[in-house]
Amino acid sequence: MDISIIIPAFEESHKIRKDIETAWQFLQDHSLTGEIIVVDDGSSDDTALAAKAVGKELDAPLRVIRYEPNQGKGHAVRIGIVQSVGDYVMFADAGTCVPYDNALRGLEMIRSGQCDIANGSRRINGCQIDSQQTAIRRFCSKSFRKVIRLFMGIPRELTDTQCGFKVYRGEIARRLYALSKIDGFTFDVEIILLARQKGYRIREFPVDWTCDCDSRISIHKTSIHVFKELFRIRRNVIQHKNSHSS
How far apart are CA 235 and CA 15, in angstroms? Predict the structure, then answer.
């Protein structure tokens, strides 16, 4: 199987159809064999049922995984990736903020040996941003980038750790996510640090992006959890590495 597409979803019954249609069209347009895995992260709005209905209607290669209660985006992505079987694995946020054709850039980078992990970025040359985040979200994103560079050691060349559009070699994705512990928003940071620790090469590629105003991230509710997760990552990954090096 060429590629597994993971779509983490929470309360997305009203728009999961477009995500599945777009993923399935991408596979067909580029003659890729693959699977689409929707992971329903404890939704209360029948997201899983809506996804299954669309998959059946389209006769798409769809699997739906559902669990309760809600655990967080990191948990949903991990569950989907560890159960994937594709030679390559990608995950894309629900809402189709990035056109799926953009994944071809990441796939080519991996196939040509430039990297093992290709992360989409909204902050490098070649991006087209159709709808910006609000001013407060832009401020929070900028502050977050500074924190993870100074506090977590994320290299400056990785400009957009939180972009929800990433492509991996399949076996590397499954290996890294099986090791990951973070269930929430900062799981991307943990995966990057684990990948660097193991010597996997990470590069970014530009994406075309439209802001999803229906984001499930609440700045006020999320902030305290973000810092707790970063402290946990620092303890589990960075300090653990340092203790083994000494």
Answer: 38
How far is residue 188's CA from residue 8's CA, in Å, rounded to a whole number?
A: 14
Say how far apart CA 93 and CA 215 lie, in whole Å.
10
Cα(97)–Cα(215) distance, rounded to whole angstroms? 11
Q: Which residues are CB-contacts of 53 (< 8 A; sequence separation ≥ 6)?
A: none
**Bridge-partner residues for 120, per DSSP?**
205
**How sure is the predictor about 224, in pLDDT bands with cuts at 50, 70 and 90?**
confident
Where does the pLDDT of residue 241 fall: very low under 50, low under 70, confident under 90, or very high at 90 and above?
low
Neighbours of 22 (CB within 10 A): 18
SS3 45: coil
Q: Which domains does the chain have, with CATH numbers?
A: 3-245 (3.90.550.10)
* pLDDT > 70 fraction of the chain, expressed in percent and rounded: 92
Distance CA 165, CA 119 (A): 7
* Confidence (pLDDT) at 212: 79
Token couple for 196: 């660097």
| Residue 120 parent element (H or E) | strand 117-121
56, pLDDT greater than 70: yes
List CB contacts of 9: < 8 A, sequence separation 6 or more. 16, 19, 38, 39, 40, 41, 43, 47, 51, 76, 94
Query: SS3 of 81, please?
Result: helix
Query: In the block, which residue shows the tokens 């994406």?
Result: 207
With contact defined as beta carbons under 8 Å apart, do 126 and 137 qualify? no
Residue type, 84: S
Q: Tokens 């067909």: give the residue.
A: 28
